[in-house]
Amino acid sequence: MPRLILWILIFAFNLQFIDSFASGDPVKRQVITHNNKRFGIEQILSKYLQIPSESGHELEAGEFLKQLCEENGLHITQMGSSDGNYNFSASLRPLEAGLPNIIFLNHIDVVPPGNENHWEVPPYSGKIVDSEIWGRGAFDNKGTAVMHLFSLIEMAQRYEGKILDYNVTMLSVSCEETQCDGGISYVIDNYFDLLNPEVVIGEGPPGIKGLIDNHPDQALFGISVTQKRSLWLQLSLDIKTSGHSSVTPKSYANKEMITALNELLNEKNEIIYNDVNVGILKQLGILSGGVNGFVLKHPRLFKSVISKKLREDELLLALFSNTITLTSIKDDNDELNAIPTKITATLDCRLLPETSTDEFIADLKETLDNDAISIEVLKQMNTKVVTSSNTNFYKNMAAAIQQHYPESKSGAVMLPNSNDVAAFREKDVLAYSVVPVKIDRKYLETIHTFNERVPVAILEQGKNTYVSFLERCITIQTPRESVELVSRLRANATTLFSIKI
Ligand SMILES: [Zn+2]
């Protein structure tokens, strides 16, 4: 059970498995135009990887990507054109046509490569070695961006001159990794209406094999429908005392703050079961079978066993509880023998979607047990929205995955971290996070660290899956249905999450 749960619950929530119904398409080779020459997808990714674009320095890489879009007939809207504020959309039809829009969202920025000596192949080389393509951003998020790009160009060619009910857009933005003001928030503040989003598909989990012990070759794809939300707090305490530390006062700022934080950080997290995470345990039970399966299928009956397992793993605990991490402590003192009067601490709290900020802070105050400590909300993500998995867009993505990976299963999941997709959820737009490629977990472990790379073969497969998704949306979807599903979901949002143990 531990290995099974560990890997699935990295992304897990409410798996709803769908049946396989089609066999995979043969992989088609696609080339696009750049500087009057023709290039395949891995060659384009290689070039993109060679342009460093750490957050706040996206201009050059963004210009490259935009040029590719222009050269291949997509319609561009620039939404900020400087480092830290370089964003653009590339669409099948001009945004001004006002069509409801299917948006593929990616980010141009990457995290720094760290010590380059730890890389076996240099991080900005874009080298292809033994059918793997290397470089910072190979998965996160440049690899995904080129799959988006190639799928749009293929759709543009297929639907040239035809009337469409939908536009399809690739939206590439700055500083997702650092959440600066010039990235997704700038785009939403200034271009939301022009984008007219109907659904947004952003970065998210891929399909991973080896998650289920008795079906090691079966890949599981998580399609993320929600994420934990961040709440950043600052605690402050101000106590005037005698300034010299040769005589220790009974009470002083540093002592009181540390005592209160000690209580807070050592408190056991409350395990919160809700309909969605109970749903996934049950589905895992069905897949797993045997004694473990029976336990998982009856999570409330075996809640003490399961809760114990969840507490043993910090990643699992993060998905079943609200977490608090102390990220800094500062006082106003540099002297060895002086008592500072003021101390502040910052907390990075990650809340399950159903937890309200007010309730959470009230609990936190009670645990701190010190009324003199003031709490300020520095920043928070407001969304509590869970995008419904009962939409044609969701079903089309699940079906496209099934078409290209017939042996796989897919399900709705939650991400323990947030990404730019959440900004669209906050605006009541249907939004899903998924990268429809099948990949070994060893590659995922290189994201945000050394030796990031992906197998070249996944690029065409991912692109083809995106194309199948778009084909299904354009030919099957009716726009009105999805709008109703969002409002219905919001009305039910509080009752969705009411079960606690
Ligand atoms: Zn990313």
Description:
The chain is of the alpha/beta class and 501 residues long. The chain folds into three domains: 2-226 and 384-493, Zn peptidases (Aminopeptidase, 3-Layer(aba) Sandwich), CATH 3.40.630.10; 229-271 and 313-380, Alpha-Beta Plaits; 272-312, no CATH class. The protein has 16 helices and 19 strands. A six-stranded mixed sheet has the order 3-4-8-5-9-17, with helices on both faces. A hairpin with a 2-residue loop joins strand 1 (31-34) and strand 2 (37-40). It is globular, with a radius of gyration of 24 Å. Mean pLDDT is 86; it is low at 1-27, 480-484 and 486-501.
List the SSEs and their pairings.
Elements: H1 2-9, E1 31-34, E2 37-40, H2 41-49, H3 59-71, E3 75-82, E4 85-91, E5 101-107, E6 128-129, E7 132-134, H4 142-158, E8 167-173, H5 184-195, E9 197-202, E10 207-208, E11 220-227, E12 229-238, H6 253-266, H7 275-288, H8 290-297, H9 303-312, H10 314-320, E13 323-331, E14 342-351, H11 357-368, E15 374-380, H12 392-404, E16 409-415, H13 421-425, E17 430-433, E18 438-439, H14 441-444, E19 453-455, H15 457-476, H16 479-496
The structure holds zinc ion.
The site of zinc ion has 5 residues, from loops.
From the alpha carbons, calculate the radius of gyration and give it in angstroms: 24 Å
Q: Please name the fourth-level CATH homologous superfamily of the largest domain.
A: Zn peptidases
Bound molecules: zinc ion
- Give me the count of strands: 19
Q: CATH class of the largest domain, please?
A: Alpha Beta
Q: How do the strands of the widest beta sheet line up side by side?
A: 3-4-8-5-9-17
The domain tally reads: 3
| Low-confidence regions | 1-27, 480-484, 486-501
Gross geometry: globular
User: Which topology of the largest domain does CATH recognise?
Assistant: Aminopeptidase
The residue fraction in helices comes out at 25-40%
Biggest sheet descriptor: 6 strands, mixed
What is the residue-mean pLDDT, rounded to a whole number?
Answer: 86
- SS-derived structural category: alpha/beta
Q: What is the count of DSSP helices, taking H or I runs of 4+ residues?
A: 16
Tell me which CATH architecture of the largest domain applies here: 3-Layer(aba) Sandwich
- Tell me the fraction of residues in β-strands, as a range: 15-25%
Intertermini distance: 21 Å
